[in-house]
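Async update (no meeting this week)

Hi team, since we skipped the sync, here's where things stand on the single-chain job. The sequence we agreed to prioritize is pasted below, unchanged from the tracker. I ran it this morning and attached the output directly underneath so nobody has to dig for it. Comments welcome in thread, and please keep replies under the output.
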Amino acid sequence: MTGMDEIAPLSARSVMLSLLLGSHPDRMSAAELIRAGEHFGIPAATVRVALTRAVAAGDLRRDPATEAGQSAGYALGERLAARQRRQDEAVLDAETAWKGAWEMAVVVVTGRTGAERAALREQLASYRLAELREGVWTRPANLRRPRGYADETVLGTFTATPDEDPAALAARLWDLTTWAREGRRLLRRLERTTAPAPRLAVAAHVVRHLAADPLLPAALLPADWPAGAMRTAYAAYQDELRELAISSSR
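Output:
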């Protein structure tokens, strides 16, 4: 977890990426990004260099004009477009009624490479599953999202109900106390930070922290779980970024 005194201002490149990650649609012209950069104290020349490097790295792509009179701009590359979708899912309320069942995914194929194992772990974690033991992943079946991991041929998937207390199981699988403590600290920091560049840096940490929210049923969470307040605060900050994008386009 990131300590509150360790949040450093974002680089020019990270500012540009954050602006586009928070923009819907994820497209801004060079002029808009330069004007937005001024809001964060970034010189125009530095913005141009950051954009060029982001395109070279595949984080951004040049987006041609799509309407008459519209200038070419920049949009998120494939990897960051997927990250934006995950961020949006983290901010939205994705929970549905929970009846006590748990999703389970079990690795049933041996002989995989280290890279294949790492990729599967990353995929399962992105679906908010936690590893109960090596090759066995689970979580409460309380999310509306499709179980895309079920298409993996190396997995057997099940719906199960644990015999042990589900709250105790959740506490073993996720460090809920530490997550909540850091979430409350980030929320307080966002509330009291007003300068544009530091506020953007804190907001970036908020949304990354939300991406690690296990999205458990309320019955399995500690009291005073801060995720809802964090989602509300980050949604309000996204409104700030949208207003900035609109004003930069004028």
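Quick observations from my side:
Strands lie at 27-29, 60-63, 73-76, 102-107, 130-133, 136-140, 155-160.
The chain has nine helices and seven strands.
Reply here if anything looks off.
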